[in-house]
Amino acid sequence: MAQSASRVWGAVALLAAGVLTLAAGSAVSDAAGSALAVTVDRLKPGGVIPGTYAYCVPAAQGHVTGGPNRSPAIRWSKGPAGTASYAIVVVDTDVPTVFTSANKEGQTIPASLPRRDFYHWLLVDIAPTVTALPEGADSTGVTPQGKPVGRTRYGVRGANDYGGGGAVHGGYDGPCPPWNDTIVHHYHFIVYALDTAHLRLSGAFTGPHVMKAVQGHVLAKGEVVGIYTLNPDVAKRLGIKQ
Q1: pTM for this predicted structure
Q2: Are the C-beta atoms of residues 161 and 205 closer than 8 Å to each other?
Q3: What's the CA angle centered on 189, arms 125 and 14, to 5 degrees?
Q4: CB contact at 8 A, 189 and 90
Q5: What is the CATH number of domain 2-238?
Q6: Residue 126 to residue 155: CA distance in whole angstroms
Q7: Kind plus residue range of the DSSP H or E element containing 118
Q8: How many Cβ atoms are within 10 Å of 132's Cβ, its own excluded?
Q9: Is the separation of the CB atoms in 171 and 145 below 8 Å?
């Protein structure tokens, strides 16, 4: 447990230092011609994301500890004619723009603070024959130094926003919002059907790179939104069992 907590607070330290690569603007505003039906196992639309998929989970001491951090099983309906690939983007649209009060005893992050996007999963160039990924396909736990970016069995990984200070974190890393944030965070699990087989992204490409690359190529998209909080007061107010 001590090692797990160390990993968590390593990530929290990056958050507090503000060295994460965050993207301005919403990643869900790109228009698409039609809709994909997207489902995430054990997540009802608007429901609470299971702790199995979280980077951090509540703890009796120290507020939080490391979570299982497994990428969820996700599936989507077949894209329209002309679909040459799919892309998965998972983004938290409620990350504070200022981290000076994040995870500090006796302080809270007010709901009035402006928010921005934080990308948790970027997987592109998924073959058009694939319409589902099993649980654990892109993460089976917390990797302290980050998983590598690049080609995998299911597609090409980008760099999520847990990186910073020279570190690069590829693949899926789940929710870990500040435990003293006064709002619940919303996580958008988005799938794009694209008319191109390759977005020509390589290396440690980020959320904004993906958003720019898909422009003009989206045939359809769909999403499921889940919520998550590590603040026990917010959880109690919303009736969330932790």
Answers
A1: 0.89
A2: no
A3: 90
A4: yes
A5: 3.90.280.10
A6: 5
A7: strand 115-126
A8: 11
A9: no
